[in-house]
Amino acid sequence: MELTLLGTGTPEGLPRPGCPCAACAVSVGSRSRAATAVLVDGALLLDLTPGAVLAGARAGHSLAGVRQVLLTHPHDGPAVELPPGLPAAGRVPDGRELAVISGHRVRAVPMDAPGTGYEVTGPDGARLLYLPPGGAPAGLAEQAGRRPYDMVLMDVLGRPEALARLRASGAVGPATDVIAVHLDHDTPPGRELERRCAAAGARAVPDGTTVIVGEYRAVPDLPRRTLVLGGARSGKSVEAERRLESFPDVVYVATSGTRDGDAEWAQRVGLHRERRPGNWRTVETCELAALLAADGPPLLIDCLALWLTDAMDRAGAWDDAVWAESGRQQLAGRTAELVAAVRATRRPVVLVSNEVGSGVVPATAAGRRFRDELGRLNAAVAGECEHVLLVVAGLVTVLKE
Fold first, then answer.
1. Beta bridge partner(s), residue 398
2. What are the tens digits of pLDDT across the range 260-313?
3. Is the distance from CB of 150 to CB of 178 less than 8 angstroms?
């Protein structure tokens, strides 16, 4: 089954008409995107958009052989003019199956938002799932016992939790080719778009790209261990969460603990919890080595700076005399245990830590000790990670990949 993506943007396209934002300003030329529309084997058109005939011609395909035009979502604004020779556009009722004269079978998949998804099975048996903008399947019970889709086209960046649900149900497997469509101006084009898609195990392609469903291709190689560094309010925690939000059953490891009577701290913790996907499980602990050694779903550890604070408390490392007598040795042993656990872990893990080496030199010996030890810990953990990122002002720089 051959697909040509006539467009890969939101219904408004990219750049959005009249939008002054930075992402729209640079979405020109090869980075511009028409509204998403997909031509299947020259016979089936999923979504009808303005300029579909011209987009097909630019991609080297004619729409003269189209036998069925299906819509996935309500089209706002004036009706799209139907090009001469194309059959009338329509939508298949949820749960119903349509047989196309070209040999394709199309089943309408109910969505949790306005719109219809389509499962397309080609004459060769290849299976495609195409979802509307902002939509996710309302139920996946019918997927039980079936093999994963060969390809999924969906709003990966807008609905990452939908991809997590598809993975949890077995609809998306390790070899499924996931392509991000309905792309909007929320993510800058270019390297940032590629990086965010790769973190979800997906890819983005330019308008006019032709792909073969079921054809072997290397899926994105997701790193097992990632360290995300950044200063206060840099966006490092958001970036860490983004790297796992499209995967199911994530364990969020909070090293912050609780602070009785501190309302401001409780509010910070609450905001973090509200931001996480509802299917994540939270564990509050500083016993990281045991978690890293155990089998299980991916871990998000936030953060190493608070873990170090706890480790220094236990070692009495804030007191100069204790530090000189036994604290240094105790802390070194605990740090070495953590680094060894990161090295040996078999489960995916994203670790967050503060980058404090660029600020003002602390005024106290204990403050300088913490800064130095955190710098050493960050360097040691970074050495055991395949991927290291630095977040500054919400922008990500890749330090190691």
1. 389
2. 555 554 555 555 555 666 779 999 999 999 999 999 999 999 999 999 999 999
3. no
73, 182, 185, 272: the active-site residue: 272
Average pLDDT, the chain: 89
**Residue 272 is a catalytic residue:** yes
Buried b (16+ CB within 10 A) or exposed e, 347-385: bbbbbbbbbbeeeeeeeeeeeebbbebbeebbebbbebb
| Helix/strand/coil (H/E/C) assignment for every residue in 143-176 | HCCCCCCCEEEECCCCCHHHHHHHHHHCCCCCCC
Is there a cis peptide before residue 21, judged by omega within 30 degrees of 0?
no
Q: How many CB atoms lie within 10 A of CB 143?
A: 18
Q: According to DSSP H, which parts of 243-287 are helical?
A: 263-275
**What sign does the CA torsion over 324, 325, 331, 333 have?**
positive
CB 77 within 8 A of CB 35: no
What string of DSSP letters covers 8-56? -B-TT-BSPTT--SHHHHH--GGG-BPBPEEEETTTEEES--TTHHHHH
Instruction: Tell me the C-alpha distance between 141 and 194, whole Å.
Output: 32
Question: CA–CA separation, 255 vs 271, rounded Å?
Answer: 15
Q: Using CA atoms, how far apart are residues 199 and 216, in angstroms rounded to an integer?
A: 20
pTM for the model: 0.88
Instruction: Report the alpha-carbon distance of residue 265 to residue 259 in Å, rounded.
Output: 7
Cα(202)–Cα(190) distance, rounded to whole angstroms?
A: 15
* Token duo for residue 222: 């997701």
Distance CA 107, CA 66 (A): 18
Can you tell me the distance from the alpha carbon of 120 to that of 149, in angstroms, rounded to the nearest whole number? Answer: 10
Q: Could you give the CA distance from residue 90 to residue 92 in angstroms, rounded to a whole number?
A: 7
Strands (E) located in 155-232: 177-180, 210-212, 225-230
Beta bridge partners of 283: 253
DSSP secondary structure, 92-134, as one string: PPTT-EEE-TTS-EEEEEEBSSSSEEEEEE-TT--EEEE--TT
Segment 16-43, tens digit of pLDDT? 999 999 999 999 998 999 999 999 999 9
Cα–Cα distance measured from residue 10 to residue 181, given in angstroms and rounded to the nearest whole number: 8
